[in-house]
Design brief:
With 407 residues, this protein is of the alpha+beta class. It is 24% helix and 27% strand. The chain has helices spanning 19-22, 70-84, 89-92, 189-192, 202-219, 249-256, 261-274, 316-328, 363-378; strands at residues 37-46, 49-55, 59-63, 112-121, 127-136, 140-148, 151-157, 165-171, 178-184, 221-224, 235-236, 281-286, 296-302, 308-310, 350-354, 382-388, 400-404. The strands form three sheets. The chain has an eight-stranded antiparallel beta sheet. Strand 15 (350-354), helix 9 and strand 16 form a beta-alpha-beta unit. The longest helix has 18 residues, at 202-219. The relative contact order is 0.16.
């Protein structure tokens, strides 16, 4: 029996990637092209999408009416990111039937599924990943293709439905043009290649470099949907890393206010522009238990005249604005993300996914927030994909890619 390769845990030493992406790229000088990033999302058959392709820039807004598939597109992106990080298929798709197009009919073997993919650009040029998932009767990856420069570098296919494995073939360009071996059908083969490919030939090194570019582009993703009602209460101190609902925002402010004065100053400037009344500072203090260390903390706005306003008194729009500004002005060390530990942070890009980017925001807040996002994304270390019902208000902002999903 073939034992499927084990996916290492975060922080565990893994097989090293080839030099082209570990260093400064082909030119020997660092540039934004050295940061792998996803530049296209493809939903061949996923939810309401059939044969859809979405270009993604540093700051992309998916717009369209309710039911047009904005949330589905973000869900597909998140799924690819988690698979790229080594997650099992069942963890990523707990209800896989919900992802199957509504009118998709099962075949003679009662099989139904969906297909998603993306393109990651970087030092190796555009690298494409396409994944076919069988949702019924058994959840499994039945096909995967990794391509670059018109060449198929990895291809998998389900040969024996009775086995929990797919047959994989990857480019070798040595004594044998391809290497064939089974891979598990509940993991992304691209993420497993570093554990299976030695990197002895030029072909193997090309496969590894392309796989790494795709994995690095996918992994550093922070899914964010601030929940105002959860940010109004005292929170316990913990890791100091912001959760996707931003409900521990007070805990993060308790940590970050003293760690980087410059970024905190930028946050205060942003909050001053988006919240009603004067804002002198944004801070956290010990909560109702009065201890701080080991207890609870709460966040407040210092009005500069001796008055401190607890976040519980702010409106939903102000809270969402504050939370999203904090996300844009921090990074992987503060957000709850899983970056590629074997690649220097300077060669990675954090991608923020926000459903309802403009939810509860007034015109001043959403325009100020998109301008802040454009400034931060322009620097190359962060990208953002947000869903909005209407993006006409952002169309004139430089650096914004608007993707209209209206039927």
């Amino acid at each position: 029996m073939t034992v499927p390769p084990r996916v290492p845990r975060q922080g565990e030493k893994t097989a090293q990637f080839p030099a082209p992406l570990r260093g400064l790229g082909r030119t020997g000088t660092q540039s934004r092209s050295d940061r792998p990033c996803v530049t296209e999302l493809r939903l061949s058959a996923f939810g309401v999408h059939r044969g859809a392709s979405f270009p993604l820039g540093p700051l992309s807004l998916l717009c369209g009416p309710s039911g047009s598939g904005k949330s589905s597109a973000l869900r597909a992106y998140e799924a690819l990111a988690r698979l790229g990080g080594g997650a099992e298929l069942g963890e990523v798709f707990p209800e896989p039937a919900d992802c199957v197009p509504e009118r998709a009919r099962p075949d003679a073997q009662r099989r139904r599924g969906f297909r998603i993919g993306c393109t990651a650009d970087g030092p190796e040029g555009p690298v494409r990943l396409d994944v076919a998932v069988q949702a019924e009767p058994r959840l499994r990856i039945v096909g995967e293709r990794l391509t670059a420069g018109g060449r198929t570098l990895l291809e998998t296919a389900l040969r024996d439905p009775a086995r929990r494995a797919v047959q994989a073939a990857w480019h070798t360009a040595g004594s044998s043009l391809v290497t064939r071996a089974p891979l598990p059908d509940d993991r992304l083969g691209t993420a497993l290649l570093p554990l299976r490919v030695a990197g002895r030939t030029d072909g193997q090194r090309q496969v590894l470099a392309a796989a790494q570019q795709m994995v690095v582009a996918l992994r550093s993703v922070f899914v964010c949907d601030p929940l105002p009602h959860s940010m109004r209460t005292d929170v316990p101190l913990g890791t100091g890393r912001l959760l996707r609902g931003c409900d521990n925002l007070a805990e993060v402010l308790w940590r970050t206010r003293s760690e980087c004065g410059r970024r905190h100053g930028l946050l205060v400037d942003a909050v001053r522009a988006g919240c009603a009344g004067p804002v002198h500072d944004v801070l956290a203090e010990p909560g109702a238990d009065g201890t701080g260390a080991g207890g609870t903390v709460r966040a407040l706005l210092d009005r500069g005249d001796g008055l401190r306003t607890p976040l519980g008194r702010l409106g939903n729009g102000e809270l969402r604005y504050l939370a999203l500004a904090l996300v844009l002005l921090t990074g992987p060390g503060v957000l709850e993300v899983d970056p590629a530990g074997e690649v220097p942070a300077a060669l990675q890009t954090l991608t923020v996914l926000v459903d309802g980017f403009d939810r509860d925001l007034d015109a001043r807040q959403r325009e100020g927030l998109v301008r802040l996002a454009a400034r931060m994304c322009e620097r190359g270390h962060i990208r953002l994909v947000g869903a909005v019902s209407d993006a006409s208000w952002a169309a004139g902002t430089g650096g914004v890619t608007v993707v209209d999903l209206a039927p």
